[in-house]
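USER:
Before I trust my own judgement here, I would like a peer's view. Write it directly below this note and I will take it from there.

ASSISTANT:
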Amino acid sequence: MKVLLTGSAGFVGGAVADRLEARDDEVVRVDLLIPEAHAPGTTAERTHLVDVRDAAALRPLLEGVDVVCHQSAMVGAGVTVADLPAYASHNDLGTAVLLAAMHEAGVHRLVVASSMVVYGEGRYTCAEHGDQVPGPRGVTALEAGDFENHCPVCARPLDWAPVDEDARLDPRSGYAASKVATEHYVAAWARQAPGAAVALRYHNVYGPRMPRDTPYSGVAALFRSAIEQGRPPDVFEDGGQMRDFVHVDDVARANLLALRQVVTAPDESFAAYNIASGEPVPIRRVAELVARGTGGDLTPQVSGRYRLGDVRHVVASPERARRELGFTAAVRPDEGLPAFATAPLR
């Protein structure tokens, strides 16, 4: 199988490329090496330094390709609102240009990286009033240290529950909005081309070759960087935010399963899957596990700081991915996060 892989020099893309080539697939590697994800001077062997927003550069690379695996994106929650144009350009426009170039080249099968951020807040329930949909948390409550979402009927703190792929999409950041747009472009392309596409909604990905020391990195990398610099990890809010952390090796394996499915899928089909470990952990526990892996004695510091746009809890149900893709995570967070503390980073 011939696969055009965007973002092939990145964290997830590199892991996907390794697995594809290990099974003797032909991989056309494409990456722009944007500074938000790559250090200055980074090089990538056997990689076409192509911007997915450049249709003319993409066209010759798509010749003879069976399926595209689209991993390239500007990631992270965004440092400031000044990042909005970059998200719209790299993620929204980049995906739209790639889809048009694929159609022109006669390539109609696609796997695309999405994210759990498309959900915004996760699923919440009240013991008395059932499922509830909380709005954004207010600054006054956050300043007072009240980080929970509350039932709009009785005002009690809401309990979290796993969110499935049929949940409403409610982006709370510029990155999240760009990922929702990406999914909508892809679904529209699948209907109009026609083609077949799978979107993989990654939860918090971590593991070897993760970028270090950048505000666009995941929180696990930020915790590790702090420890390496002799500082206790800074845990925002009260550390009780529930998340699912999934190892990059599992994410790469999910991509291969999705590629196998999409090449035989019927036209005009689009499916989204949560890619998660299925073992949610509070953020405070993530910091503790990473700290434990270093063998040091630094204790995470719960600071009470917060970021507007952050959500309280978002935990996935991986059941559909298990049932339809055959995907089950192999690396448990209690094992993977301590090992991450000493894994090589980029």
